[in-house]
Amino acid sequence: MRKWMFLCVALLLMIMTGCSQEAGTGVSGPSTIQKVIDKKKLVIGTSSGYFPFEMKDKEGKFVGYDMDLGTAMANALKVEVEFKDFSDFGGLIPALQTGDIDMVISGMTIRGDRALAVSFSDPYYSSGQVVMVPKKDSTTQSWKDLDQPGKKISVGQGTTGALLAKQLFKNAQVMDFDGFTNAALAVKQGQADALIFDEPGVRVFEIMNADSVRGVYEVLSSENLGIALPLNDQATIQWVNSFLASYRNGLDDQTSTNKWFKSNEWINQVQQQ
Amino acid sequence: MGSAWNVIPQNMGLLLDGLLLTLQLSAFALLVSIPVGVLLGLCRISGNRVVSFLAVSYVEFIRGVPLLVLLFWIYFVLGKFLKLGPFLSGVLGLGLFSAAFIAEIVRAGIQAVPRGQMEAARSSGMTYVQAMRFIILPQALRKVLPPMASQFITLIKDSSLVSVISVVDLTLVAKNLVSTSFRSLEVWSFVAIMYFCVTFFLSQIISALERRYRVSE
After folding, report:
1. B50 touches chain A (CB under 8 A)
2. Does any CB of chain A come closer than 8 Å to the CB of residue B164?
3. Where, by residue number, does the polypeptide cross the bilayer (chain B) (predicted)?
4. B19-28 pLDDT tens trace
5. pTM for the full model?
6. Contact B175 A90 (CB under 8 A)
7. How confident is the model at residue A17 (pLDDT cuts 50, 70, 90)?
């Protein structure tokens, strides 16, 4: 019986090795955009909880700046849109690689290492990483003040803030949490001394929790957010870039920017922390 | 992109560190759950109504709550006051969760020993505690070994959930590796095999134990 078991495990391994050779190669056959048009549905991967880009309102519907962008794209294609939620931000690129989703719009920073695995559209938003500390910490002015043994820095697993924090902090301890919400909660509750995250997300969290946290707006990096698309799918990349060129700073984009970044009225409509 | 499986040997150190933490976490959680579970199991069948009610309540409550929720609760609610930290919260969460299932296994094991055994022991002059210790529990032990084995294996597998409260166990190492290398298929396949090796090794040990006890029967 044991012989059979090892045979099965060996067979499983062989199948896995076989599969891996297909992963990561360029796209063949019809482009993703053509497939979207044919099935009349655009499936967008996202990771909710990143204010004000992707959030869920009280009815559980996706809302936010990225949702407006995705919906406008689906309208331009005359197809239906579906947002798929990945609580684990790090699971988005693998899901795009396996074709589970057509694209990722999730406040994703355009980064060299990611660009080896997926293709990026032109940037649609620019931001940077900042620090957030508990309100009772009134002394911290810079990330350098936090780089001491015993200090705990919380980050969202798989985010740019996580990578940056691991490079910056030589003495402090970096803690990976499952998503921004839990990482921010750790700071709010006093289990971590600071959080490294994108500026817009920190600004909104500070507004919602003004009595317990404080943002330190020393920008640690300059980042461009892009739409992640299947690797080397030229037709899709070109279509998305053409769309962005006409969408950016247009009427819909201005309405969306005013709604999500220039006003706080939407905060009551989304799920409370 | 190069050979895709390179990602495994290149990060072997990290993966082994993660595995070590998973093993430590599971071992400490076991150390918590066995005494608590056995005690709860004994309380469950106790003649004292209050004691057995408390034990039943605990078991029912824990069994009715997902481990993930329990971990978040211990870390974010209880941990806020007790300053537990991620590792201790993980040990406590896993240990208390597993204890509820061990309690049920112990109860079933004891109840599977024929009632006459206890009556015979008591009538030969033993106290309740003596009868439990020398007559009932040794017989029950044999019966509970197989379900205990699956409970221990479940515990090791459940330990992967602690990655959500920033314990750098094997699963979190793998998540981080996937988010920087994007080799999800290779990393998760290898990690699955690592978990399997540990649980398979454990189940072999327990089968050996079972065989040993069967001889003495």
Report:
1. no
2. yes
3. 20-43, 50-75, 87-106, 187-209
4. 999 999 999 9
5. 0.76
6. yes
7. low
